[in-house]
């Protein structure tokens, strides 16, 4: 980690914060400080904005093939440095190395996908219905963008936003989460090495998010905001974006239902539950939050899930054989502790886990709760931890109503061997994505996003590029 940059990346140069401020980066497995990085303020945000604005016009004129090849080179460098990036991510975020390597591959794939999409930006041509004018449609970059990424997938959330912005011809300011800035700084170094021109990407690490972001959004020169994070912060950013009518993409919170019908293959259902719940220690917006299991199979499903969860090894992510690393910080762990305690007070039974271990680090054991009351706090709160809460149901209409009884609508999971039921239930769920007999929906080639208070717009897939492009229509008289 000694070679990982710790300064701001502005205009293609590594620079200190204008006031010299720094902030610590902690290892959540030990609580020890592993690095100090520059802590940007408002002046640094202005410098980054100026660099992005100055680079925009020339970058927009760059040939699509050039942008494509930069992304392809960056993809190849990321793949070559998988172990280095995985160790860095584990150190600052805590996930086991096996998961970190998986995220590196996932992150790299966004660059490969958008390197291929960069050369497929098309417009249109035709004669208008009245016959008087020809219509020429062209696609243009929306302009300088502010990209705000979370701590739970620090590399992949960066590439998922940077990839389409580069492909579209947009310049950027990236503000990573203060808990995990090192992965973003390493990514900036890789893109510079891949040939990205100065000023196209600027990385501003900060603990002073309001001081940095609000002036950018209200100032009028940033034309696009792409944010991944909590719904509460998303609402604030939307309000700040309204003044200058900034285009927004918002990937916000989730409260995913995981529905197991009586005809489900329980082996598939438990395998899917392990992925949907335990990916990234449960610290994912796609994590299954509410397990609705048909009463006829609920006891057997709970027993199998508890057995699998109880067999997971908890410990530092760098240790061999570890399945579950620490949560991001003590605040995040305290939230999980409080949610479990509240559920137990309301009558839930703990099948496995439920007790915070002693010692250093922010560890919490994989936990399965059954007989969970519907008014428990964890039913309407994004848990963001390794806790599976099981409720029972008897009727299809009933479970759909309960699954939809939430302000969020990011993803849902449906397990049934009946194709008609799988399609029928999926179509009635108020979510942007559905996993049918699978616990994993995320893929760079698929549109990721939700409905209701889970966000606006989509990331990934072909539509992910559209978020960074505008249409221009030319009317040309027919002679």
Quick description:
This protein has 479 residues and is an alpha/beta fold. Helices cover 39% and strands 21% of the residues. It folds into 2 domains: 267 residues, Aldehyde Dehydrogenase, Chain A, domain 1; 188 residues, Aldehyde Dehydrogenase, Chain A, domain 2 (3-Layer(aba) Sandwich).
Overall domain count: 2
What percent strand? 15-25%
Broad structural category: alpha/beta
Distance between the termini: 65 Å
CATH topology value of the largest domain: Aldehyde Dehydrogenase, Chain A, domain 1
- Rg, nearest Å: 23 Å
User: So how many helices?
Assistant: 14
Describe what this molecule looks like in 3D.
This protein has 14 helices and 22 strands. It folds into 2 domains: about 10-250 and about 455-475, Aldehyde Dehydrogenase, Chain A, domain 1; about 255-445, Aldehyde Dehydrogenase, Chain A, domain 2 (3-Layer(aba) Sandwich). It is globular. A hairpin with a 2-residue loop joins strand 1 (about 10) and strand 2 (about 15). A 7-stranded mixed beta sheet has the order 14-15-16-13-12-18-19, sandwiched between helices. With about 475 residues, the protein is α/β, with parallel strands linked by helices.
């Amino acid at each position: 980690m000694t070679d990982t940059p710790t300064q701001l990346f502005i205009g293609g140069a590594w620079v200190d914060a204008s006031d010299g401020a720094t902030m610590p980066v902690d290892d959540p497995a030990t609580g020890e400080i592993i690095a100090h990085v520059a802590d940007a303020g408002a002046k640094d945000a202005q410098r980054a904005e100026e660099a992005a604005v100055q680079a925009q016009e020339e970058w927009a004129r760059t040939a699509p093939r050039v942008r494509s090849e930069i992304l392809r080179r960056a993809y190849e460098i990321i793949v070559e440095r998988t172990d280095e990036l995985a160790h860095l991510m584990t150190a600052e975020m805590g996930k086991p190395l096996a998961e970190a390597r998986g995220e590196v591959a996932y992150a790299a794939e966004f660059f490969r996908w958008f390197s291929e999409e960069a050369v497929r930006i098309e417009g249109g041509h035709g004669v208008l219905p009245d016959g008087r004018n020809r219509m020429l449609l062209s696609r243009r970059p929306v302009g300088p963008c502010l990209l705000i990424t979370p701590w739970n997938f620090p590399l992949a959330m960066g590439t998922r936003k940077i990839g389409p912005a580069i492909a579209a011809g947009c310049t950027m300011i990236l503000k990573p989460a203060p808990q995990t800035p090192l992965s973003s700084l390493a990514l900036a170094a890789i893109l510079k090495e891949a040939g990205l021109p100065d000023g196209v990407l600027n990385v501003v690490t900060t603990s002073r998010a309001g001081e940095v972001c609000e002036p950018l959004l209200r100032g009028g020169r940033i034309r696009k905001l792409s944010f991944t994070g909590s719904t509460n912060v998303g609402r604030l950013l939307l309000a700040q974006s309204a003044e200058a009518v900034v285009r927004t993409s918002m990937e916000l919170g989730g409260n995913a239902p995981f529905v197991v019908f009586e005809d489900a293959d329980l082996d598939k259902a438990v395998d899917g539950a392990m992925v949907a719940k335990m990916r990234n220690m449960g610290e994912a917006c796609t994590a299954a939050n509410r397990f609705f299991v048909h009463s006829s199979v609920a006891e057997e499903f709970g027993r199998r899930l508890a057995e699998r969860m109880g067999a997971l090894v908890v410990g530092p992510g760098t240790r061999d054989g570890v399945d579950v690393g620490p949560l991001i910080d003590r605040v995040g762990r305290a939230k999980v502790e409080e949610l479990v305690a509240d559920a137990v007070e309301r009558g839930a039974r703990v099948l496995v886990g439920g007790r915070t271990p002693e010692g250093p680090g922010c560890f919490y054991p994989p936990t399965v709760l059954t007989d969970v009351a519907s008014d428990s706090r964890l039913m309407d709160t994004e848990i963001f931890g390794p806790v599976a809460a099981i409720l029972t149901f008897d009727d299809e209409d009933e479970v759909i109503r309960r699954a939809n009884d939430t302000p969020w609508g990011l993803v849902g999971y449906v397990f049934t061997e009946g194709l008609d039921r799988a399609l029928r239930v999926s179509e009635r769920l108020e979510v942007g994505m559905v996993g049918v007999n699978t616990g994993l929906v995320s893929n760079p080639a698929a549109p990721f996003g939700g409905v209701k208070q889970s966000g606006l717009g989509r990331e990934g897939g072909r539509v992910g590029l559209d978020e960074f492009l505008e249409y221009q229509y030319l009317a040309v008289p027919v002679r």
